[in-house]
Amino acid sequence: MSSHWQLEPIQIGSNFMAMTGVFHDTQFLDYLRGSGGVVEYVEPNQVYQVTRAIPRSELHVSAAPNWGLARISHRFNTDLSSYSFNDNAGQGIDVYVLDSGIKIGHSDFGGRAFTEINFVSNESEDDLGGHGTHVAGKIGGKRHGVAKGANLHAVKILDKSGMGTTSVLVQALSHIIDVAIPGKSLINLSLSGPKSQILNDVLAEVTETHNIPIIVSAGNLGSDACEYSPSSSHNVFTVGATDEKDQVPSYSDTGKCVSLYAPGSHIESAWIGADDATQLLDGTR
């Protein structure tokens, strides 16, 4: 029976258990929904995708490689020509980047990027789309990143087109709680999809029970972030985008679910194609 439905159990810690499968019989699904609490809820295995980027053709002070780094090093938007930063920021911290992978050998990562695990069965561990590398560069690149000393762990859950599913995302989170060190680890999710109770419940389990902070993008649909997951979760830090004038651009999702806004327009970061490749992108990544 289990092989007929392709059942796979998923457990996060001791408080969350789920089952994925392929069910063609709607009557059986109705039976599960009416099981008197044995099954709390049933929902589709949702499709998630990268928050689609919009392409464009001790303290140190230096010229910033992009305006966003200069902006976050100043309280007010008065001087975007200088950039104050700590070379050791993020040292000893493990950042798990759940995305399309990371170009491990890129010069911006300085040997601090690692392949953690690949959940995309029909692709190599390499970043074939570029999104994950760009995100990792902004997190911990020695030139383009904020936390220049952080360790970057590539958890590949999105294929080269930037697509993944709830079940794969939940499996990845389950892996992370098994290997991550609470208090020295965090998770980045720069993706968005339909609002999902199962995903939001898992995020709550990871943050509350296992003490691993999760940073997510608000989304790039110019809509209400509360209508999507993971941005609708109350247990994550949801980040929207600002531009050079401290304005929220039209593409950024907004609303009460957004925890904070950060530079997101016209941001240069690491890219695939070469070990020193860069790309300018817009978005709430």
Task: Provide a count of the helices.
Answer: 6
Order of helices and strands: HEEHEEEHEEEHEEHEEHEEEEEE
Low-confidence stretches: none
Radius of gyration: 19 Å
Beta-strand share of residues: 25-35%
CATH architecture of the largest domain: 3-Layer(aba) Sandwich
What class do helices, strands and sheet pairing give? alpha/beta
CATH superfamily of the largest domain: Peptidase S8/S53 domain
The largest β sheet comes out as: 7 strands, parallel
Tally of discrete structural domains: 2
Straight-line distance between termini: 42 Å
The average pLDDT value, as a whole number, equals: 89
Q: Let me know the number of strands.
A: 18
CATH class of the largest domain: Alpha Beta
- Measured as a percent range, the helix fraction is 10-25%
Task: Provide the CATH topology of the largest domain.
Answer: Rossmann fold
Query: What's the arrangement of strands in the largest beta sheet?
Result: 8-9-7-11-13-15-16
